[in-house]
Structure formats: C-alpha cells, structure tokens
Design a protein that fits this description.
This protein is of the alpha+beta class. The protein contains one helix and six strands, in the order E-E-H-E-E-E-E. The protein has one domain. A six-stranded mixed β-sheet has the order 3-2-1-4-5-6, with helices on one face.
C-alpha cells in the first residue's frame, strides 16, 4: 500500500484547514522522503511546476493520507494523520526550521 501525504503551503495564515496551496503525493509520503525535499527545495515550489517532482495540485483534503506537511514561511510542521480524521485530531510529530 502507498504511503500517501498532502502538503499545505501557507503564506499569511495559520489555520491548518485553509492552506494557500495544497499538494498531494500518492506514494512515498513518509517524513524521511518528504522532509529533505521540502527543506532543500521550498523555493522550487514557487518557481517550477509541482508535477515535475511527483506532486499534483489539489483543491481539497484527501481522506486517505498518513502524513500532512504544513509549509510555512519559517518552518515545516509534520502531522501524523488517521484516515478520514478531522484536522483537529492530527498529531504534530515534528517541526523543522525552514
């Protein structure tokens, strides 16, 4: 089974439910795979098409993700997510300075 995740990019808001940009990755969404890409390549999201790095733009939260990454101007928050679990129940498992 694939390890799915979503990545929310936040510019000027702090509400987990309303990211400015929402990305989805169907496989290899675990932190060891995603965090190095995000930490080293946050600027690439602004300049290149996200599809070139195995991500797709989406308009809503998927119900079958295991991880959620909130990319903010100063940090990346990593959440462990249960399937179809509301964001208020997501568990913050890491926060990386960006």
């Amino acid at each position: 089974m694939s390890t799915r995740c979503q990545i929310g990019v936040y510019h000027n808001n702090d509400s987990l439910e309303t990211p400015d940009t929402l990305l989805y990755k169907h496989c290899d969404g675990y932190p060891e795979e995603i965090l190095p890409m995000l930490v080293l390549g946050v600027s690439r999201f602004r300049n290149d098409a996200p599809e070139t790095i195995g991500l797709e733009l989406c308009e809503e939260f998927h119900g079958d993700i295991e991880y959620y990454y909130a990319v903010r101007p100063d940090r990346i928050d990593v959440y462990s997510v249960g399937w179809d679990e509301p964001s208020g129940l997501w568990k913050l498992i890491d926060s990386i300075e960006a």
